[in-house]
Amino acid sequence: ALPISEMEAPEEAKGYPREEDVKRMKEEVCKERPEAKKVFESSWNDAYVQKVMSQPSKKGKGKMRTFEYSKTKFLKALETREEFKAESVFPSDTDADDVSKIPEDVKRVCAQGSLYWRDYDLENRPILWVRNSRKDWSNVDIMAEARMHIWMIEWGLRRLPPGVTSFVIVADANGMQMAQLVQLSFVKMLIKIFTRMYPDRVGAMLVGPVSFLLRRLYAVVSPLLPKNLRAKIKLLPSDNSTLREVVSEECIPEFFGGEATHADVLIRDGLQDDYMMRDAKQALQFNFGWMTEFQDAKLNIITARSVSAGTPRSLSMNSTL
What we know:
The chain is of the alpha/beta class. The protein is 43% helix and 10% strand. Strand 3, helix 8 and strand 4 form a beta-alpha-beta unit. Helix 1 (19-32) crosses helix 3.
């Protein structure tokens, strides 16, 4: 029998995509781009392939993406990986936690403490925290920023719980600067990475607290965003009620009025505090150990719960290409 994807209207067929459709997708993508095999083995597991293939079509309600449209998504992602030389940024899983093997430009930009993983949300999706007020907006290195974002995303994708294929972005808009409004090259770079290189990975994007500058920035940026991504963005009121719908109380950091501390993200000579961050930025380093130890501990807890609850095989394991 033909795979459902070869029927006349695959997006309307029940059960699509089936295991054989996922397998065919991987085979066809690898045939056109052999380097895809490594990506399928590392971060594009079957659960993610299923998710990309089963998303709603732009052509109308009730319709799913066609096989060919989904295939194009994967091929464009691979093209973008090649454009940004993603494999040179994050060459292998075994090197991910070896600080000595992290590219120097990535470590340099990480030292701003403007992007890091910390905790998981109520749906067990990892949380990527954005602290853009820590950037020197008068001296932004677009390519170094792109490489740092790629490294951070690749690192986080290796720590997804069973069955989870997306992550949440929470952006701290405190201390926004006018300089951010004119950084369109930076914004376009981020859009390209998050939408083309990592399609359907962003599960939600929460930005706040709301301010005049934030609304102006959103008015400039929102027309550049795909419709499905715009639907996932929420501007946070000052009471953080919207944030609490996604993140548990214990995960809300101090800069959002909670009790969780993120001060240890930056270190200097074994010391961590906000005074250091303000007055000795040039001497600070990103605390990779802090991020790794916390995320791994949380991931082990979530994974143990998932295993005891019985995660379906098709959502937790890759099939052989």
